[in-house]
Amino acid sequence: MSTTEKEINPQVKKGPFLQENSKSLLFIAGAIVVLIGVYLWYQNVYLKNRAEEASAKMYKAEGFLGVDSLANKAINGQGGYPGLDQIAKEYENTKSANLANLYLGGIYLRKGEYQKAVESLGKYSDTGSPVADPLALGLLGDAYSELKDYKQAITYYKKAADKASNKFTSPMFLKKLGLVYEQQKEYKNAEEAYTKIKTQYPESQEAAMIDEYIARASVQVK
């Protein structure tokens, strides 16, 4: 090879790391390609199929919701149909499992099983829903309130009221927030929560009689 050719096509010199680890680096590169393929399959095929399966199975349990006498059937299932508890566990990472946790939290609250309500609602993930997301936070506030953990109740009622500002959920949880503040003798905070209903949500159902609550709290403010 001429000097000119050597200048045009210089030999690539590998450093010690590349020389000693070239086989390992090839293995790692191949593994990354495989992992990417597995991830795409998991996201686009596996999770999609599981989501459709979970949705198809949950309709029976949803039919039992709202009827206290059927609460156990909603939780545990009936006649070969899985209940909400099984769906939440077996179909993790699906929308149906997420919704099942919200349903379970509401049912456990009605049954007076407040710690179970906290556990189920704590597994719920935000979906962007202006109704479901604040409701999950508000139900957590209810559960903690029943457990007499008022500090946590206040935290979650605040989050619920602020989550999706609307005249349906926000005033409802602001009122509950005010009631907990009163129970804790934090009357100034209670007055502010009630006043927020009056000024920001005057057309809400809670606003209709909120003046009585504002007056009651303001009398106690020192």
Topology:
Elements: H1 3-8, H2 16-62, H3 71-76, E1 77-78, E2 81-82, H4 84-90, H5 95-111, H6 114-122, H7 132-146, H8 150-163, H9 169-183, H10 187-200, H11 210-220
Antiparallel strand pairs: 1-2
Describe this structure in words.
The protein is mainly α. Helices cover 73% and strands 2% of the residues. It has a two-stranded antiparallel sheet. Helix 5 packs parallel to helix 7 and helix 9 (169-183) packs antiparallel against helix 10. The longest helix has 47 residues, at 16-62. The protein is elongated, with a radius of gyration of 28 Å.
Q: Which characteristics define this entry?
A:
mainly alpha, elongated, 2% strand, single chain, 222 residues, two-stranded antiparallel sheet
What summary fits the major beta sheet? 2 strands, antiparallel
- Percentage of residues in DSSP E strands: under 5%
Which runs of at least 5 residues are low in confidence (pLDDT < 50)? 1-14, 36-47
H and E order: HHHEEHHHHHHHH
* Rg estimate, integer Å: 28 Å
CA-CA gap between termini:
97 Å
Number of helices: 11
The coarse overall form would be elongated
The amount of helix comes to over 70%
Trace the largest sheet across and list its strands.
1-2
What structural category characterises the helix and strand content?
Answer: mainly alpha
Q: Tell me how many strands there are.
A: 2
Average pLDDT level: 80
